[in-house]
Structure formats: structure tokens, C-alpha cells
Amino acid sequence: MNLLTELAEGLSISWAAICANKMRSVLTTLGIIIGVVTVTLMGTAISGLNKSFLNTVSFIAPDVLFVDRFEWAPHSREEWLKIQKRRPLTLEQATQLEQRLKLSQAVAPMITSRGWVQYKKESAGGVNVIGTTDQFVYTGGIGISQGRFFSPAEADGGRPVCVIGSLVATNLFNGSDPLGARIQISNQPYEVVGVLQKQGTFIDSSFDNQVIIPIPQMIANFNHTRDLDQIQVKVKSLAGLEEAREELHSAMRQIRQLAPSDPDDFAINQQEQVLTMIHKVTGTIAAIGLFITGLSLFVGGIGIMNIMFVSVNERTREIGLRKAIGAKRRSILLQFLIEAATICLIGGLAGLGLAWPLTLLMQRFLPATLSPAIVGVALGVSLVTGLLSGILPAWRAARMNPVDALRNE
Amino acid sequence: MSLIRLNKISRRYQMGGETIHALREITLDIQRGEYVAIMGPSGSGKSTLMNLIGCLDTPSSGQYELNGVQVSEMDDNHLAEVRNREIGFIFQTFNLLPRSDALRNVELPLIYSGVPAEDRRRVALELLADVGLADRVHHKPNEMSGGQRQRVAVARALANKPSILLADEPTGNLDSKTGREILVLFDNLFQKGHTIIVVTHEEAVARHARRIIRILDGLIASDEPTDRNATAPS
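Predict the joint structure of the above. Result:
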């Protein structure tokens, strides 16, 4: 008997069996439906969460290296106290870097602060103020929606110009054209030359709530020393990231005149670190969430197993007859496995049917979609649940002795 | 060559701490084309003998050669194949699948022997016509009379053209009229050359056979031809 006939036969038998016990089948399937709904929703929520985390860091380009005083990682208290003594990064170091680096195409020094902005009667506080050079347009992962970024000449400090984030534009201009307008940034006048594209993230809106000004203006107006918060370096190609990082590392050591035995007193950070951290967090959430929801599927599976044992018991004579007229163990095993899998697959489909509108509801909070992958996983999981919970009853049926089975009343 | 050759077949069961000797060194030959009745009171071992002949069970000792093949040592799956090919079972309680119509019930052995769907259908329809149920092919068992159900069972038993028809009290659940009709059907099958073994405790049923084997306490008590031999086909 070939496998195809056997599968077709198994399907038709199990369908008949399911239809013959409609109420029982529906109740049993309910366990799987609930399991699939929770697993699907959890999967969708986790992928949505992941997506919004990644959106948040999307302005950290993968081909940009970030020279900071500290590593982007949690520090212990002792470590923290030790690295506090690290010397600041300076504008001169950034200039020297620019001259030395061969494998990088842009170097942008950066000073950040907080301030308030005002235009006519509108004002807003808690705005991120970034002082940088024209190179920031390459390193900062920004897009310009209106106007332009400031020029090298402007960056050198000739004119007080600024580029504003979309939220700042909305707050101050409320629909009117911001280009060419003179706004106050912490009491100093700046001309708006450009507006940034809206980034809009799940975590916060700090990216949209920023203004960017030339670094000399920053130093002059915000009473800063020439200390930098960060130097951003964009490498020439992503493929050459490691060599560029190596070049940057040795250049920084030379510029900061570290002896070969000295440890680094700066850090080179990159997107990868953030991604690693995010994946760690979402991975943990996913593991816990899926474990908990998996439990409900497990309970559903036990229900299936239970009903399959009942089904095998009820049909002992049928099994005996089938064996008497030539069914091998495999045929009987397959018949009951298919029955269990069919119940579970029906439950899986029904569960997806229920989960779909719920994910639409979830979309209000998260960029969550019921992806084909999740649909596939949900159906796969219900199929596997069916096979796993069916295997014991099916094995019992397959091993029945035909003489005893036929004698069963 | 004998179709069935039992050589010193014994079958023992463990029940509690006790060993029950259901069959004690039975030696028996049945030729192709014979019509044999196996008789005996309950507990005599006749059901055990039938299960062994039908390859539903294996002997504790002794050899069983069916159609030239040693089956006494075969495993479950091989026995299933032999049953599918060589044995057509007819049960007292019909044992039809309740949710399947007559056609599908008759097709069942063909499914397990891997016959393609179209051939299955054709063979099953022919067989149902042969047993006089051409107009009942899509009836389910609960829509048919006892006699009709047993005819479906006979058609099913014949599906794979088995060497032996093995009937266990085939008229036990039928009234005397329909019982006689089934026995006439058996007579016809015998005339066509089928080998038939009927297990029964009714003398009237057994007398349709050409040879009666009586079992008592696990042994063959007698093995005699019946008076119908005079009219046996050549």
C-alpha cells in the first residue's frame, strides 16, 4: 500500500470520525484554538516590539563608528568610577582624525545640550541641541525633508543657521513655512535652513525634537569648553568596517598619545552593540512569553491526547477488523496520527482566524502584523502538537492484537 | 500440495498463573477447493484454531504452512500482508465500518493491498453485483438488513481473491431464512472453486460443508467427510 493512498485513506477516515463526534471534536479543538491564539498574538507582539526597537535605532547607521569616552554597555560601579577619569574628546582630535583616516569618508564632531526654542509667540523647552559640522549629514543617519543641511562654510561658524527636527517645526510653525525664519535657540537668533524628516519612534520622540547648529556657535553660545560628546566616523564601505575600525583605533591612540602599555581611554561604539543589546532584551521577552503561551498549547495537546485515547478505545473493533483484512501497524498508526493532526490543524486555522482581528487591534500600539512566518509557525506548531499528542494513542492502536481487538465489545 | 498444512500446532495461553492448552499438537491438512466445517463446543479450541488458520495469531509451537509459505514465525506486518492476500474473513457480527457505505466497505481490503482507486471501485461494484447488492452500493450498514450486511461482508472477503474464505459463525446473527440464503451463497462460491472454512456449532450449517472437523479439548476428535460429498464437483 503506497503512502499516498494511505494518507488519503487516513484523511477520509479521520474526517468521518471528526464529523461523527462533532461536539466532542469542537470542545477538544477549543484547547488548541486558545493555544494558537495566544501563541500567535505573543509572536506578533514580540515581532512588533522588535520592529519598533529597531526603528528606534535605525538612525544609528551600520557603517558609522562612534568615538565616545565610554562604551555603550552597562558598567559596574567600580568600572564607572575608573572610566570617569578618562580625558575628554576635543575638537582638535576630531580635526586630526579627519586628516589621518584613509578608510573613512566623513568625520563629524558632536556636542549635545538641551535648550529651548522660540519663534514669535510659540516656544518649546527640552529640545535637544546638537552642535556639529556639515559632515553630520553623512554620519547622523538623518534625512532632510525641507531646505538643506548647513554648508562647510556655515559649519565653520560664519552664520548662525540651524536645521530643525520635525516636531520642533510643528511646534513653532504650525504648518507655515519655517525656511528662512529666524528662531531663538536659548536666546540666540538662528536662521532655519532645513527641516529633518520625521523619524517618529515607539520609545520616544527625541530625534524629532532636536535642532542642529554649527559647532562654533554651540561652543560660543552654550558656554561649552571645546570638549566633544562624540565623534562620528562614517566608513567608506560596510565591507571594510573592521579595517576602518582598526585604523580609527590606532589613530585615536596616537592622537591621544597613549603609550603601548596604556589601556584605551576612549571607546569606539557601533550599531552592532545596540543591536546585540536589543536582541538580548527581546530574546528574553520572547523566550518567557512563548514559554508561558506554549503552556496553553501544551494543555490543549493533552486534551487531544485524551480524546484520541477515547477514540482508539471506542474503535477497538474497527482496528481489529482493519488489521484482520490487512492493515499493517503503520497504516493504523498513520490513521490515528492523521486524525489528531487534522483536529489540531483545524484548531490552528480557527485560532488564526480569531487572532487576525486581534492583531489588527494590536496595531494601534505596535507595528505588529500577522506575518506569513507567524502564520506558518502557528500552523506548524499545531501540526506538531497534533502529531505529538497523537503518537501515544496511535501507537497503542497500532500495537493492538487483532484477535483481542475483534473480540472487544 | 496442501493449501493449509498444520504440523503439531500447539497454542498455550497464560491466564493468571495457569497455562491453558488451547490446542495440543494438532496436525491437519486442507486442500485447495475444500469446504470444511470446524465444530466444537465453546472452550474446545476451535476459535483458537480459526485464529491460527486466519493468521490472526501465531502458534506457541509447531509449523503452519499456508499456500507453500511458512507463516508460523512471521511478524505482525508480514502476517497482515498474508491476511490481506490469502484470507477473506466473514464474521458473525459482520464487522462492517458503520460510517462507510457498502462500496467503501468492500473496497477496504483493496486499499490495504494498494489497488488504485478506479480498479478498487470497479472490483467492488462487480463483487457487490455478484452477491446481489447492485442496487445497495451506497447504503450504509444501518440502512441494510442483516442478510444484506453479511452479503457485503462476503463481497469484502472476496475482494483480494483470497485462497481461503474463513467464516466464523456466519449465520449466528441471522434468522434461519437469511441464514440459509448465506449458506446457498457459500455453496455457489464452493462450486466456483473457492476454499471455504466455516467455524460453527450448528449441525445444519456444518452439513453444508464436505468435511467436518470436530475439536474437543484442544485435540481433533473426529475428521470426516459429510454425505454431501456425493454431489461434490469434479
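The two ends of chain A are 29 Å apart (CA to CA).
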